[in-house]
Amino acid sequence: RLPVIVQFAPAETGATLDLPGLRDLVRQRPNISAIKIDSGQSAEAVEVVRRGVDRSVSLIIGYQGIQLVEALERGAAGCMPTVSVASALRDVLCTFANDRQEAARRHAEIRPLLEFMMQSIEMMVACEKRLLHRAGLLAYPGTRMPQAPLSEEQVFTLSKLAEAL
Question: How many C-beta atoms lie closer than 10 Å to residue 116's C-beta?
């Protein structure tokens, strides 16, 4: 009876839920209220899912919102990023409703940071911890083994890109 969000992340999870399977799942479970699409091709996936799912569900993207503006243009309702970039992407989302060009410009300013962070899930976690430490929200910026720490060059690049926030 509770609202459910289905996470569609085939590359990360190894799950083989295809569009017909997703359509069937939505038909069988009326409590599915949203589908979160985690893909490097989020905008395209939003369009495909929107056409294939025959009842109204919200579509949100993950993948750090790299394709947020493109996904909004294709029918997404928003995105679910990590904490460190949430306010910047909220700004893009709120701006999109009134001025798509300005939203695209603002998104372009932070997109290099998003792309840098999403080189891999491990990189995203390491960058997120660094950014949260920088903001005073974490006491320690490191990650646990077996994940390798960010190199000095990566920390420098992350710091420069984060200035866009």
Answer: 18
- 8 has which bridge partners? 37
The distance between the two most distant Cα atoms of the chain, rounded to a whole number of Å, is 50
pLDDT at position 54: 61
79 and 61 in contact (C-beta within 8 Å)?
A: yes
Q: How far apart are CA 61 and CA 46, in angstroms?
A: 8
Rounded alpha-carbon distances, angstroms, from residue 33 to 21, 77, 88, 96, 132:
16, 12, 25, 23, 30
Asked whether the bond before 146 is cis by omega within 30 degrees of 0, the reply is yes
**Residue 7 exposed, middle or buried by CB count within 10 Å (0-12, 13-18, 19+):** middle
pTM of the model: 0.84
**Nearest partner of 88 among 122, 62, 114, 116, judged by Cα:** 114
Is the pLDDT assigned to residue 11 strictly greater than 80? Answer: no
The token pair at 118 is 């999403």
The half-sphere exposure of 130 on its side-chain side, counting CA atoms within 13 A, is 21
